[in-house]
Amino acid sequence: MIGDESDRIEKGQRRARGAASNRDGRFERYAHVRFDDGWDIAEDPLPPIRTEIAMERARSILTRNTSPDLAFDRSINPYRGCEHGCVYCFARPSHAFLGLSPGLDFETRLTAKPNAAEQLARELSRKGYSCAPIAIGTNTDPYQPVEKKLGITRAILTVLRDFNHPVTILTKGALITRDADILGEMGAAGLATAGVSLTTLDPALARAMEPRAAAPATRLGAIRTLAAAGCPVWVSLGPVIPGLNDMEMERLLAAAKDAGARSAGYIVLRLPREVGPIFRDWLEEAFPDRARKVMGLVRQIHGGRDYDPEWGRRMTGEGPVAALIARRFKVASRRLGLDRPWPPLRRDLFRVPRDGPEQLSLF
C-alpha cells in the first residue's frame, strides 16, 4: 500500500535523497507520524536533513554467509547505511536492527568502522585461517561519499595487498579510481577483480533512482581507469526493473564492453521488507504515469508478490517476464563476449607478513 501524505518528508528537507519518508523499522513498538497540529508556529521551511556519521569500533570484520545464491562465503562492509540513497537498495532493512528507519535514516545516519583494517589484519593472522576471496560492497557501497574523507576501504585494500589475499569489490562510486594503483597491482597478480554497477545510461533517471551515486558516464570512466590499471572489471546490471530500465540492457552491456569490462551479471529488482513501500512511494511520486504498470511487471517476476525470498529465484525471478530478461541478457552477453568465465582468484599467494625481514629458508 502506498503511504499517505503524513508519511512523507517535505521535498526541501530530502533534497538529493532517495526515500520520501522515514517510517519506523519493523522492530519498533511505536510508529511516529508527523502531522499538522494547527498551530503553524514555524513559517520557515525546515532545513535539509544532513548526513550524520557514527564511529563504531568493530570487534570482528569478516561476515560469513552460506547462501547458495552467492559466489563467496565471506565479506566486509566498512559502513552501515549508504549515502548514495538508491531507492531500491535491498540493504535498507538492515538499518532496522540499529533501531533506525530503513528510509531516510539509512541514507543520512551512517556508521563507519575506522578500525576495520586493523581488525582485518588480526583476523587474517589467526592460526588456522583458511584463505578464500573476500567480497567488499555486498551490502552497502564501500565507495560512498564519506569514504573520501575516512579512507577505510583503501586501508582494507592495503591490508589485503600486504597479505596477498584475493578480493572482489563492487561499487557504483567513482572514488574506486583512487585505489586503481592497489587494485591494478593485485589484479595483475590474479588477486583482485572489480565490479561496477550500472542501472541506466539516462542521467535524469540515475539521479532520481540513485541521487548521490556517480553519474552513468562517470562509472563508465571508472571501468576504463581500472581496466587500464590492470584490474579485471565486470559490470553488474542491477537492478533490472521491468518497465523502467530493462529496455536499456543491450546498450548498457555494449557501453560497458567499450569501456573495458570483461564480464557481466545482472539481478532483477528485489523489494524485501521495508524496501517495498519505500520503492512504491518513490515510483508514485517520480513516475505516476507508469507506477502501476511497473509494479505489475515486478509482481509477475516474483510470483504475484513484491518480492519472492526463495533462494534460486530471488535474484532472477520466474515466469515469462523474467525468462525474457534472462534470454536477452544471455544473447547480448554472448554477442559482446561478456559471457566468458575467467580464472578463479589465486589463493596460493596468501601469506601473513612479518614485522621484520623474513628469515631465509634452508631448503
Describe the protein.
The chain is of the alpha/beta class. It has a single domain (5-25, 57-336), classed as pyruvate-formate lyase- activating enzyme, CATH 3.80.30.30. The chain has eleven helices and ten strands. The protein has helices spanning 104-108, 116-124, 147-150, 152-162, 180-188, 203-209, 216-229, 249-259, 275-286, 291-301, 319-336; strands at 52-55, 63-64, 74-76, 79-80, 109-112, 134-136, 167-171, 192-198, 233-240, 263-268. The strands form two sheets. The chain has a seven-stranded mixed beta sheet with strand order 2-3-6-7-8-9-10, with helices on one face. It has a three-stranded mixed beta sheet with strand order 1-5-4. The longest helix is centred in the last third of the chain and has 18 residues, at 319-336. The chain is globular and about 60 Å long. The N and C termini lie far apart (71 Å).
